[in-house]
Design a protein that fits this description.
Number of strands: 14
Oligomer: single chain
Distance between the termini: 78 Å
């Protein structure tokens, strides 16, 4: 009887071979060699972000709004979060709780990405919630992208678009500026058309 013991140190798959040579058996004129192959196949983590777009519809200037998104592990191995990059206007701020419960925050445009050390581990079918705060100083639309660094081997995994004030109403007048009536006789009413258009993404 043989006992083969395997100790796992990482999330990588492993393959090994055992050669057994038997000699001195009267049934065989020559030594007999047996080959036994065995392996350990470990699944891969897979990151999923929900919702697929983080949309701050309408936030007034100098006010703040908060939204959350979930980092979900839909794979077969632990998902390790080690870095977050946020390319956007500094009116956004990201907040995430570390492994020890401490709150980590990151503002875009402040330099290097947010490093998470030790990494945050998310088990299979579990999730970790992240908060994003939007504090605009004007009513113009703002966009950005959050990129989650992890051990998910899939290229491009972990990207989340962020949108703020992209659906604000907008009004334009045609003709723009002053409305010219030209020469008008005294006592004779004159009309000019002015067109009001909604140039925004909502009513």
């Amino acid at each position: 009887q043989f006992v083969i013991r395997y100790t796992r140190h990482d999330n990588n798959s492993r393959v090994a071979s055992v050669y057994i040579k038997l000699s001195g058996d009267p049934l065989f004129a020559a030594p007999k060699i047996y080959l036994i192959k065995f392996g350990i196949k470990v699944g891969s983590p897979k990151i999923k972000l929900a919702p697929e777009v983080l949309n701050f519809d309408q936030v007034k200037p100098n006010a703040s709004a908060s939204k959350t998104f979930d980092i979900i592990n839909t794979g077969d191995a632990d998902l390790l979060l080690n870095k977050i990059d946020f390319l956007a206007n500094p009116v956004f701020e990201l907040k995430i709780k570390a492994k020890d419960g401490a709150e980590l925050s990151h503002k875009p445009g402040t330099g290097a990405p947010l490093t998470i050390d030790p990494p945050i581990s998310i088990a299979k079918n579990e999730k970790h919630t992240v908060e994003v705060v939007f504090s605009p100083t004007d009513d113009k639309g703002k966009t950005g992208t959050i990129t989650i660094g992890s051990n998910d081997p899939s290229p491009g995994a972990g990207e989340l678009p962020v949108v703020g004030n992209a659906n604000l109403p907008c009004m334009t007048l045609k003709p723009a500026g002053n409305v010219q009536f030209g020469g008008v006789k005294l006592g004779e009413p004159t009309e000019r058309d002015v067109v009001i258009e909604n140039c925004g993404g909502t009513d």
